[in-house]
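My main concern about presentation is that the manuscript never shows what a single data entry looks like. Each protein is reduced to its one-letter sequence and a matching series of backbone shape codes. For the editor and my fellow referees, an illustration may be useful. For illustration, here is how one protein appears when written out as sequence plus structure tokens:
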Amino acid sequence: MRLLLCIFLHLVGVIQAAPTTNTTTTTIDSFQAPSFTTRTMWIIVSSSVLTLFACIYSAIHPNIPSPKDSPNRILRRRIGIMIMALIAPELIVIWAMRQWFSARSVTRRFKESGYPSVRPEQEQSEKKESVEAPEQHGNRFLRFLHFLRLLPVVLVKGVLSVPVFIWHFLGHLVRWVKAHFSEQSEDHAWTQTHSFFVLMGGFMLYLDGEPYCTLRPDYILTLIRKEYIDAPTLTAKQIHDKNKGNAISKGLIMLQVAWFVMQLITRAIYHLETTQLEVGTLAFAVLNFLTYTVWWNKPLNVQCPHPVYWKSTESRPEDHIDVPNERNENLGLWILTPVESILELIGSPGIPTSRKLQVPTFDGSIKLEDSDKRVLPLAALLMATIFGGIHCMAWFFAFLTYQEQVLWRASAVAITFTPWLCFLVHLSPNSATVVMGLVYGLIYLVSVILYITARAALLVLMFTTLRNLPPDAYKAVSWTSLVPHL
């Protein structure tokens, strides 16, 4: 159904984007004097809104809901994630990157255990590895220098996200074609897809025929070794069968994002006016590339976990694993709390990292390697800088009023440098005084409020500045309408 809808929207977009009025005549040198077509306000808004929707809805891979969640609660949670993606898209990228780091660690752990034939003799060694190392409280200035040394690593990962996506897309397309034209035997080996599946709450422990708790990766290995559960025999193919997205549907969405970026580049080359709405959408599109790359193997919109049944009649699960209490959520609180989400993401000890029947949206329960822990905050700063920097590209754009221009500039600077302010406060020397603690807390609170206010102002200005566009904003390079897009 989603594929048919995408094809239909593509045909509608081609019809609407067909050349209408040829405002210039072509010359012998078509590169120096390209032919232009006229685009309408509907085309400007619809292309931007479709791309924006792909970035805040289709690109987000939510975790599996609780079996007790009603459709209304699932919808409210999804809307909350979309609102957070509009306000702080960098947080979504960091969420995806943290899950990718966690999935890589979980995959290595399961392969070393010999899954599905888990070797009991490795239990003691794995327990030692799972013990969290004490935090080293060294000179924070030296830690800051170490972070700066890792900045080129993050830059390289960001630049390589586009070719990595293309490689993933071609590889999955080849495997998809191969799966439809050849017979394949069932392979129960643990893959990256299994790791994403367990991290999103894919395995549910059943006790006496009722869902009891969501199984974390270390719980699965522990219970298998003690023979309280059987090793789940879920193959990667069966997980993909639960997936609501495939390489074709994801590729169509990425095609729309790539076309949007391409037509903005052509507008800059031929010195055509670009709207603030398109600049804001471009910022989302750039972050969307990295999100899709790291979430490529994560199943999309899975609604039901895979059941794993408790076998022992002499003991209960809480005797062997930590079973969290059921969290009572306020039905009226349908927007995710940003502060709590950030604390969950970084794995703060003050926030429960696992709920009984579902995994939190921003789960930080998996312990990361030291290098990954250093890369994540730098990646967050890099994403915030890129996102705010793209908004600063509209610094000298035409605005109807001087007040709107000043508000756009101030908001763009705020979302660019506010994360850096919080980062520098975090690296400042520790102070045992209550006064300095209150000062640091006040800086964090003001920064969050300033960031959310600036993001809201930019979202409003993206649409209010459309009321009186310059004539060049309605021109478009004719050949861009021939590129497939939605």
The mean pLDDT is 75. The longest helix spans residues 434-464.
